[in-house]
Amino acid sequence: MAETSNSTSEIGFGRIIRRGLTRRCPVCGEWNVFDGWFRQKPSCPQCGFVFARKEGQFIGAIGVNTSVTAIAIVLSMIIGFAVTAPDFSLPWILGSTVVVSIVVPTIFFPVSKTLWAAMDILMIPLEETEAPLRQRPLRKNDV
Predict the structure, then answer these.
(1) 15-50 pLDDT tens trace
(2) How far is CA 50 from CA 40, 71, 100, in A?
């Protein structure tokens, strides 16, 4: 019989982060954790992991999304200045920055939620009861 585990250390740091970055359940790797682009299911259909482990859980996801967006905006401005130098084109730089400030958080939104759930279970390890339906054994090539 294959051994199953809910232990964060046994799942592995890299695997948990990869799952978060690919919009998957950080515990079991299940893909089907969203009911649309902006709506995450309350729990994983595969293992039962509840994504909002405590009240206010996803404030961290907002912080992650804001940080990624801020980095993208700064990069957009740097690239804009570099591309338009030496006669800096302020309308082009501002236009591209506005587009980046709208597109990046929209695209990154679901990733920020699963990534934050992954970061949360790395900071506060799973309890045995937090993924009650997990029966699938861990595999080496399981992302």
Answers:
(1) 999 999 999 999 888 999 999 989 999 999 988 888
(2) 11, 30, 32
